[in-house]
Amino acid sequence: MSIQILRIAALLYAAAAAGYVLYFARPRHARAAAFGFWALAAAFGVHAVAIGVGCGEFGGAEFFSFRGGLVLLVWLLAGAFLLLQRFYRLPSLGAFVTPFTLAVLLPALFGDPTHPEIAPEAIRQPTLALHIVAAFLGVALFAIAFGTALMYLLQEREVKGKRFGALFSRLPSLDALDRMVERLVRMGFVVYTVALVAGTITATAVWKSAWSWDPKQILSLAIWILYGAMVQLRHSGWHGRRYAFLTLLGFTLVAGSMVSLRAVPGVTRHSGDYGMQAPGGDAR
Amino acid sequence: MRLEDVFLVGLSHKSAPIEVRERVALSGDALKEALGELRRADGVKEALVVSTCNRVEVYVQAGAEDPARRFFTARAAEAGDHLYAKEGVEAIRHLFRVSASLDSMVVGEQQILGQVKEAYGIASAAEAAGAFFSRLCNRAFATAKRVRTETEIGRGATSMSQVAVELVRKIFDDLKGRSILLAGAGKMGCLSAKALAALGADRILVTNRSPERGLALAHQVGGTFREWPELPRLLVEADVVIVSTGAPTYVLGRELVEEAMRARRHRSLCLIDLSVPRNVDPAAGELSDVYAYDVDDMEKVVQSTQEARRGEALRAEAIVEAEVMAFAKERETRAALPVLAQLRRHAELIARAEVEKTLSQVGPKLDDKGRRSVESMALAIVNKLLHRPTARLKEAASSGDGSLAGAAAELFGIENETQGAPAGREAAPREEPGVSADRG
Predict the structure, then answer these.
(1) What is the CA radius of gyration of chain A?
(2) Across the interface, do A164 and B266 touch by the CB < 8 Å criterion?
(3) Is the ipTM of this complex over 0.85?
(4) How far is B185 from chain A (nearest CA, A)?
(5) Chain B contact set for A155 (CB, 8 A)
(6) Which candidate in A39, B43, B95, B271 could, as Cys together with B292 as Cys, close a disulfide (CB 3.0–4.6 Å)?
(7) pLDDT tens per residue, range B79-128
C-alpha cells in the first residue's frame, strides 16, 4: 500500500524536477519555478502519507533498511529544500536538488519493502527515532550544501574565466551561493551533532556502551569533525572556492560511507544488530 | 475606387544622416501644430507623428501619401532623398516593428515603446489620431509587450556601464554594505560608478592624481575624495574598483593587489579596468578571489548580447508578423461591415417604397391583416435575396479577402456612400436593428 502512495509521490517529484529544470533552461518562465515549488510541496505531503502508512504496515521497521533510509532521506531533503526556498529564494538551486531527489528515490520504488527483524523494544527507544531522523536530516542538508557548492564552482569558473554564457546568466551570484553554502553547513552541523548525541545515548542504552569502535561510529565522528572544522574555518575567513571544495569533500565522505558500509555485509552493528540480547562482537 | 488606406512616410537613422533628421524632428507645440496641419490637409482622416532622435515618421489615414510627404519636403527640401514610404499592411508592419524595437539602432532597447506611446498620446490629444489609430497603436503596444515577455530581446547589457553592473551583480549580488572606489577621472569610469551606485553601495570613494579634478568628480558622483597616495589602503576598503586613469602603465600591479588581498582577508575584490592602455596588471586577475576585467572583456559581453538579440529578433519578427496579419484581417472585416449595412439599407428602402406604392393603390381594399402580409412579404423577399450574399461577404471578409466587398459595393451602386463613411463611424460598426436579425 505504502509503495503505491510512494509512486504517486515520485511522479510529483518528477513534475517538480521538470519545473525547476525548465526554469533553469528558460529563466523567462518564472511560473515553471513556482510550479516546481508547489509540485515539490505536494510530493512532500504525499510522501509524508506514504511514510505514515508504511509505519502502520511495518511498525517503522522499514527505516532500518537501506531502501527505507533512502525514502526517509528524500523526504527530509524535500522538506529542507522547501523551507530554504521559503526563506532564501534561490529557485535555480531547484534544478540541482530536485533531479537528485528523484534519482535517489527511484531505486526505492521497485521491489518490495523488506524489513529486517528487529527487537521491538529497540524501536521504542525515543532517542533512536531522533537519532535516525536527525542523521538523515543532517545528510540532507549536507547534500543541498553539496549542490550549492557545485553551483558556486561552476559560476566561479564562468565569472573568473570571463565566460559570459548561458550558465553565467542563469546561476545566482557568487556571494549568494557562498552564503548559502555556509548556512547549510552550519545548519547541517548542528543537526548532525544532535544525531550523534542521540545515537550515543541510544548506544549506551541498547549496546551498553557508548563507543564500540564500530566503523559507522568512526566515520560519523570523522564527518562530524570535518564539518565542525568547516564551521570554525568560516570564522577565520575561509570562503569561496576553498570552502566549496571542502563542502564537496564532506558530502563525498558522507555518501561514500553510507554506500560502502552497506556494501560490506556485517561490517557495522548498524546493519541489523540492535538486539539488547545480541552477544557482543557477534555482528551477523 | 479604393477605400482610404494607411500611409507611412518617414526617415530614420538607417536612411538619413543626423543633419537631415534634426531639421525635421519636432516636439512640443511645434509637433501639435504640425499634427493640426496634417489633419486639415485634403483627404486626411487621421494622422500620427513619431519623432525621436533616431527617426521621424508620419502615419496618415488618407487617400494618398502626399500630405505626409509634404510634411518633410516643406521642412527640409533635401529630406526628399532620404524618405521611405509604405502603404497599407506594410505601413502597419513598420509601426509594429518600430514599437517592438526591431528597427532600433540598438535592437531591443526599451525607450522606443515609450516614445511611440507618447507620440500617440500627443496625436490623440491634438485630435489628429482617432478611432483607427487608437486601434492600430494599441495593437502595436500589445505586440511590443508580447515581444518583450515572450522573447529575450531586451536581455543583456549593451553598454559598458551596464556590463559593469551585470558583472558586479554576479559576484556580489548587490552592494549593500560595500564600497565602490573610482580611481581616475575618465568619463566611462564616472558613468559606471553612477550605474553601480544604483546597486545600493554604502559609499563611493574617489581618488585621482590631481586633487582638483578628483574633488569635482567626487561631487559629481556623490562620493568622498581621498588622496592618491592612499590608494593601497583604499584597495582594502573598497569591494569594487573602477580604474580609468590616463596613465600609460599599470597603476594596480600584482604585488599591490596581493598585499591588499591579504589585508582584506581574501574578501572578494572586483577590478574593472576601463583604461587603454590598461591600468590593471592582468596578472592581478589570476589571484584567488580577485575578479578583474578589462575593456576587451566587457566589449565581449556587449557583443554576445548583440548576437543573442539577433537570434531573439527572429522570434520577435514571427510574433510581429502574426499580430500584423491578425490586425490586417480584422481591419478588412471591419471594412466589409459598412458595405453590408449599406446593402441592407439600400434594399430595405426599395422594399418600403414599393410597399407604400402598392398599399396606396390597393390599400383601401385590404384589412389590417392584409396590409401586414404585404409588408412582411416585401421584407421577406429582401431577406431571402440578401441572405446568401450576406453570408458570403462575411466569410470573404473574415478570410481576409476585401475585394468581394468592393465588388458588391460597385455592383449595387453604393460605393459613394461607403467611401464617404467617416473613419470615426467605422470604429463602432453597428448593423441596423432590423438587419441583425436574419429572418431569411
Answers:
(1) 20
(2) no
(3) no
(4) 26
(5) 170
(6) B271
(7) 888 999 999 899 999 999 999 999 988 888 888 999 999 999 999 999 99
